[in-house]
């Protein structure tokens, strides 16, 4: 096995982190420099970190009873996270969306195989994005 082949980076992020991390640039760079990255996006349909921060400071404040839509934290309708990444990687990206625990195990096993083998075509895709629907 050639040096580095089969190695890859795996990151698990929330949908808010993914969306606000400038995924277009991230995945263009990954494709351009053939950096193998597997990203698992936990899609709970919103950016909940600001709400949690506010509740730590003001647990009984207006944020406690506000709806995510009122706070501007809802991602409804949900973006196509894999589609955003795939477009930036010029289509050279393995992607799947999953919503069950059984499905997640199967998809992650397949994603790891794709990463270790150098992409679906063996030519080294930029990587893979697995979107996990939660909540």
Automatic annotation (TrEMBL):
The keyword Transmembrane helix applies. Residues 8-112 form the Thiamine pyrophosphate enzyme TPP-binding domain. The keyword Ribosomal protein does not apply. It comes from the Eukaryota. The chain crosses the membrane at residues 6-30. InterPro entries: THDP-binding (IPR029061), TPP_enzyme_TPP-bd (IPR011766). GO terms for molecular function: catalytic activity; thiamine pyrophosphate binding. Keywords: Membrane, Transmembrane, Transmembrane helix. This is Thiamine pyrophosphate enzyme TPP-binding domain-containing protein. It comes from Trichoglossum hirsutum.
């Amino acid at each position: 096995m050639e040096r580095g082949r089969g190695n890859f980076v795996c990151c698990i992020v929330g949908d808010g982190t993914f969306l606000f991390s400038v995924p277009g640039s991230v995945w263009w760079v990954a494709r351009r420099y053939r950096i193998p990255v597997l990203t698992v996006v936990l899609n709970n349909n919103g950016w909940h970190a600001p709400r949690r921060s506010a509740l730590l400071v003001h647990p009984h404040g207006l944020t406690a009873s506000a709806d995510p839509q009122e706070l501007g934290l809802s991602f409804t309708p949900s973006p196509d996270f894999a589609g955003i990444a795939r477009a930036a990687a010029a289509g050279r990206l393995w992607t799947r969306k999953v919503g069950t625990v059984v499905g997640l195990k199967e998809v992650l096993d397949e994603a790891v195989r794709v990463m270790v083998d150098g992409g679906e075509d063996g030519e080294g895709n930029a990587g893979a994005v697995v979107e996990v629907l939660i909540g």
